[in-house]
Write a structure and sequence with these properties.
about 290 residues; alpha/beta; five-stranded parallel sheet; 12 helices; 5 strands; globular; Adenylat/UMP-CMP_kin; kinase
């Protein structure tokens, strides 16, 4: 019997990442830990494999039911936090002026996470000397002003970046993506390693504009009133459908970004570390019995 001498490393990495997410989503590490803890103190166990087969379903249902129940009741507790075996994968979303970039740097420093800015990634991709297929697709979409192809190309660039070793080993914070409902669906349901936390920063548009225009120490295109009007108009147009989809996801929580920076930062950190950790849709596969 012969064995293969070479393999596609990218396929192996993608498979490993998908397997990691499957274990995380279905809480298999918690299930195995509970099985080992129970069997260690169980009396009269003569056939270990039989005992595991008879009890694994019960243990899995108990763990997942408790997590779902905690989510609905808003229970805070260590048992429902992000498992230590996995790394945070956070999306910071909100309109311009909500503080996404500043908060991303603070949170990344706290947990040693990788910061991924979709706009920066797209910029470096199309200006790189060696362009891949996704970079060429993005360049073509920009030249033809095709929103759908641009969204598809940016999504592919982010997907590939999230499968790099540093992103898989450290965890990450993503900003400036998604920008609409279609991109959010692709992010959660199409990515091999989707986010396990999505922070939606809520802020009044008038306050967001004032923050940007008064932020004179960091001038940029966002400070131009015409550019800002366009950004806000795009956000207002896409927000209803995007919010309708995000409100169905268990990974999403909303934070008021109007108070001072320190207060918003503390609220996000508290929510990330203490809220029940459940993945998937609120109604659908997440409610299915194990």
């Amino acid at each position: 019997m012969s064995s293969p001498t070479n393999f596609d490393r990218s396929m192996l990495v993608e498979y490993s990442a998908a397997f990691m997410y499957y274990i995380e989503k279905h809480k298999l590490m918690e299930v195995m830990s509970r099985i080992l803890a129970e069997i260690a103190v169980a009396d009269g166990v003569t056939d270990v494999r039989r005992w595991m087969g008879e009890n694994v379903r019960r243990i899995g249902v108990e763990i997942y039911t408790k997590s779902l129940d905690a989510f609905h009741r808003g229970v805070m507790g260590d048992f429902y936090q992000l498992p230590r075996n996995f790394y945070p994968r956070i999306v910071l979303h909100g309109k311009p002026g909500s503080g996404r970039r500043s908060l991303a740097h603070v949170l990344a420093q706290r947990w040693n996470l990788l910061i991924l800015d979709a706009d920066v990634l797209a910029y470096h991709s199309i200006n790189s000397q060696k362009q891949d297929e996704h970079s060429r697709l993005l360049q073509e979409a920009i030249e033809k002003d095709c929103v759908y192809k641009r969204s598809q190309a940016v999504g592919n660039l982010i997907q590939n970046r999230l499968l790099k070793d540093d992103a898989l080993r450290r965890g990450w914070i993503l900003i400036n993506y998604p920008n609409n409902k279609c991109e959010a669906e692709e992010l959660f349901e199409g990515f091999t390693v989707p986010p396990n936390r999505f922070v939606f920063l809520q802020i009044d548009e008038r306050m967001a504009r004032m923050r940007i225009l008064l932020n004179s120490y960091s001038p940029g295109p966002q400070a131009h009133i015409t550019f800002l009007d366009r950004q806000m108009a795009q956000f207002r147009k896409s927000e209803p459908a995007l919010n309708s989809y995000l409100s169905q996801r268990r990974e999403v929580f909303y934070v008021d970004a109007s108070p001072c920076f320190e207060q918003v930062k503390c609220e996000i950190i508290s929510s990330l570390t203490k809220t029940p950790y459940v993945l998937g849709k609120k109604y659908g596969e997440a409610n299915a019995k194990i």
